[in-house]
TrEMBL record:
GO molecular function, one term: 1-deoxy-D-xylulose-5-phosphate reductoisomerase activity
Sequence similarity: Belongs to the DXR family.
Residues the record lists as binding NADPH: T11, G12, S13, I14, A37, N39, N122, E124, G203
Role description: Catalyzes the NADPH-dependent rearrangement and reduction of 1-deoxy-D-xylulose-5-phosphate (DXP) to 2-C-methyl-D-erythritol 4-phosphate (MEP).
Pathway field: Isoprenoid biosynthesis; isopentenyl diphosphate biosynthesis via DXP pathway; isopentenyl diphosphate from 1-deoxy-D-xylulose 5-phosphate: step 1/6
Gene3D superfamilies tied to this protein: 1.10.1740.10, NAD(P)-binding Rossmann-like Domain
Protein's organism: Sphingomonas hankyongi
Cofactor(s) needed: Mg(2+); Mn(2+)
Name by which UniProt lists this protein: 1-deoxy-D-xylulose 5-phosphate reductoisomerase
Pfam families hit by this protein: DXP_redisom_C, DXP_reductoisom, DXPR_C
Length: 386
């Protein structure tokens, strides 16, 4: 029996890597549903290639083109929020959640509520609604498997261990493209410089997050919800080679690490094959050419996102959702050339001052916090920039 898979965000970086693996093992996987934001041409090509039965474009303006492009196939075209949720909760057994940003929250929740196994790349969904998500997963028998390379590494290191035997986890960070940049040079860094990641090829939002180190901050919050550890038992270390993807320290002092070349197909394959392993064409590690593994203390002066994320996690309430929303708006403005690189974390810090200690009780409340924060941030950016 082939495993039925839905790929949310099929046109993106993680979506493409997933398709690459799935198409190499046609005997093991059957793609049943694929989604994209607006690129209906690319989505229709993917649906035709994979034989998916449902293709959903989030932006309804692109529905007609999608339907035209799928004419004569067995694939149904659909658009909008309800259809996205349908792709996540329909016939798939495994849902790869690779939408970027808070836009993925409702589809991920739809998958969780229908008890699916979810390969979660969309970290923003766990950051903004972590407790709601993990509670709903427990209540509905859903399984969340981490695609994010650090969390996937930890998940691999935890296999066969008792959670009580874990003393801490250590997230590794590459340090991003500005790891060695002087503080005074950061302000002038351009979007092109920010998205040129030294080790990983990724979508523009997460690449910018890697440059501010907000990505590691979001991953700290993600790790808290995935593994149930408090902030003080989750450490972050800069490891520029990106060979160790993260580590787990146990009560006896043993440390397990997962290593591999920086290729997202490795963690995605672990999720696709779990509990078995799937062969991948990823480059093998050659230790003689790796040569050395370096570790550094992260610099929270130049990269305040790390401090802000830890504060948001420790404050709880609406803070993680506010942090995420402010960051999404600021990153989009930075990529559009409207604000400077160092404005991103300044905007997030200002927004966090408005966060409340009351945790959201529902996805609707999370979306309210998200919407309100975006509006506040947009109006304060207008006031500053014009
Ligand atoms: P990407 O920008 O390359 O792709 C995003 C996908 O989401 C696209 O298919 C796009 O069409 C879809 N999408 C965007 N906005 C949408 C909306 N409003 N509604 C519905 N669909 C929408 O991004 P990516 O780099 O593949 O990242 C996807 C997620 O995976 C992010 O949460 C990111 O943090 C996480 N992640 C990515 C990597 C990586 O290597 N790229 C690694 C770890 C985690
Ligand atoms: Mg990561």
């Amino acid at each position: 029996m082939r495993r039925k898979i839905a790929i949310l965000g099929a046109t993106g970086s993680i979506g493409s890597s997933t398709l690459d693996l799935v198409e190499r093992s046609p005997d093991r996987f059957e793609v049943v549903a694929v989604t994209a934001a607006s690129n209906s041409d690319a989505l229709a090509d993917i649906a035709r290639r994979t034989g998916a039965r449902l293709a959903v474009v989030a932006d309804e303006a692109h529905f007609d083109n999608l339907r035209t492009r799928l004419a004569g196939t067995d694939c149904r075209a659909a658009a909008g929020e309800t259809a996205l949720a349908e792709a996540a909760s329909g016939e798939a057994e495994l849902v790869i959640a690779a939408i970027v940003g808070c836009a993925g929250l409702q589809p991920v929740m739809a998958a969780v509520e229908s008890g699916k196994t979810i390969g979660l790349a969309n970290k923003e969904a766990l950051v903004t609604a972590g407790a709601l998500m993990t509670d709903a997963a427990a209540a509905n028998g859903a399984t969340i498997l981490p695609v994010d390379s650090e969390h996937n590494a930890i998940f691999q290191c935890l296999a066969g261990s008792r959670r009580d035997d874990v003393s801490r986890i250590v997230l590794t960070a590459s340090g991003g493209p500005f790891r060695t940049a002087a503080a005074s040079d950061l302000e002038a860094m351009t979007p092109a410089q920010a998205v040129a990641h030294p080790n990983w090829a990724m979508g523009p939002k997460i690449s910018t997050d890697s440059a501010t180190l907000m990505n590691k901050g979001l991953e700290l919050i993600e790790a808290h919800y995935l593994f149930g550890l408090p902030s003080e038992r989750i450490d972050i270390v800069v490891h520029p080679q990106s060979v160790i993807h993260s580590m787990v320290e146990f009560v006896d002092g043993s440390v397990l690490a997962q290593l591999g070349s920086p290729d997202m197909r490795i963690p995605i394959a672990y999720v696709l094959g779990w509990p078995e392993r799937l062969a991948t064409p990823a480059q093998r590690l050659d230790f003689k050419s790796v040569g050395r593994l370096d570790f550094e203390e992260p610099d929270t002066q130049r990269f305040p996102a790390l401090r802000l994320s830890r504060e948001a996690l420790e404050q709880g309430g609406s803070a993680p959702a506010v942090l995420n929303a402010a960051n999404e708006v600021a990153v989009a403005s930075f990529l559009a050339g409207e604000i400077r690189f160092t404005d991103i974390t300044r905007i997030v810090e200002d927004a966090l001052a408005q966060a409340s200690y009351l945790p959201p009780q529902s996805i609707a409340e999370v979306l309210d916090i998200d919407r309100e924060t975006r509006l506040n941030v947009q109006s304060s950016m207008k006031a500053v920039c014009h």
